[in-house]
Fold:
Amino acid sequence: MTTFDETLPIIAEILKRHKADLSDMDWLLVNRDLKGKIRLIAPVEVSESKLAPTLEEIAKELESRLGDRAYPAEYAILYDENREDACKGASLFPLEGFDNIEVADRLPVSGNWLSFAREDSGAPLVVFFSVKGGVGRSTAIAASALSLAQKGKKVLVLDMDLASPGLSSALLPENRRPEYGIVDWLIEDLVGNGNFILDRMYAKSDIIRDEEVFVVPAHGREPGEYVSKLGRAWMPVVRDDGATESWPQRLRRMVDELKKALDPEIVLIDSRSGIDDLASACVTDLGARLILLFAFDDEQTWTGHQILFRHWRHASVARKIRERLQLVAAMMPETDTLERLEEMREAGYELFAAEMYDAIPPGEMIEERWNFEESDEFAPHSPWLIRRHQGFTSLKTLRGRLSKIEESTVAHVFGPLIQGLGELIEERDSDG
Structure:
C-alpha cells in the first residue's frame, strides 16, 4: 500500500528517469484529485507525438508503484489544449527537480496556503496569526491600535476570526457597534449588495477621544441568523465577464473597498488561528505586508509552524512568503524573561534555518538566497517580545481598562510590537 505522503516522492523518482524526454514538453501537470489519486495532464499535441509512448510507459509505472493512489494506466493520461484551462480550480506548485512540471492539487476548499497575493501597495496590511489559540493575539491588536492612534496614526482593525468573533468588544461598546459586519458583507455581495452596506459595517472606537481607530466586526450589532450566514459566506460568485471569483478574492475586494472609504495608514487583521481555510485567506490572499506569528515556546507551537513551513518549502513557494514573516513571543512571563526569550530565539532559528533559510553563510545575500545569523535581532526568527501583564489578560474587560492604562505600561508590555508596526508605517510613507 502507498500512502498519500509517499506519492509525490515516488512520482518525482519515476519522472526523473524520463527527464530527458519530458524536457521537450512545454508543460505537464501531475493532477492530484480530491481523493488524492494521480493522473497526468499533457498538451493535446503530445498525444500524436513521439512523446506519447513515454507518457504511456510512465502511466504504467505509476499504476504499478502507486497502486490505488493512481488511476489505471489506460485512464491515467488526459490531454488539454490549454494549460490554464487544465489548471483551473487547482492549487499549483512545481514538482521538485523540474521546471516544466507542476502538481495540480485539487482541494475541496478555497484556501490552499500556496497562492500568495501580491503585497498591497497602499496602507500596509498586518495579519496577526497563530497556529493555536489563547496567545493574546486579539488583545495585542487592540493595544497596538490604541497606541498607534495616540501617535496620530489612522488605524483600521478587522475581526476576521469569523468562527469565533470577539475583538470588537475590546474596542467598541454595545451602543457604538455598526449595523453590519464582515459576514453580512460576504452574504450581501453574493447578490450584488455589498457596496450598499459598506459604510454601515465600521465604527470609530471611543476608547480615547479624538483618536482614529476604525473597527470592522465579524457581525453587526444584531448577529441575526449568524450561523446560517456563516455557512454561505464561503460561496464564490460569477462576475459579469463570466469569471469565477472565490470567497478569498471577494474578501480581498472588501478590504480594498474599506481602504478606499477610510484611507487608513495601517490595517490590522485578527486572523483565525490554526491551519484552516479562513486563516489561509488572511495569511495568503489579502496581500499582507507583514504576518505576525504569535507563539508560545512549546512543542505544539513549533510542530504547527513546522507543518506549515514545510508545506511551503516542499511546494517551492517559501521564498514568496518568508520575507513577510515575523515571530512574536506571546505573553512571556515576567520572571527570567530574557533567558526565556533567548531560548525562543534559538528554537525559532532552528525552525527557520531548516525550512525557510537558504544553505548559504548566515548574513549573506546571494541573488535571491537568504539567511541570517542566529543572534541577528532583525531576523524574522528573532521574536518580538510581548510580556504577560494582568491588565491585559481579559479581552472582555479590556475596553474599559485601555483608556486608563498608562502609555508607559503599554510600551513595557507591547513595545517591540508597536515599534515594529510604527516602522512599517514610516517605511510606507517614505516609499510613497
In short: The chain has 16 helices and 15 strands.
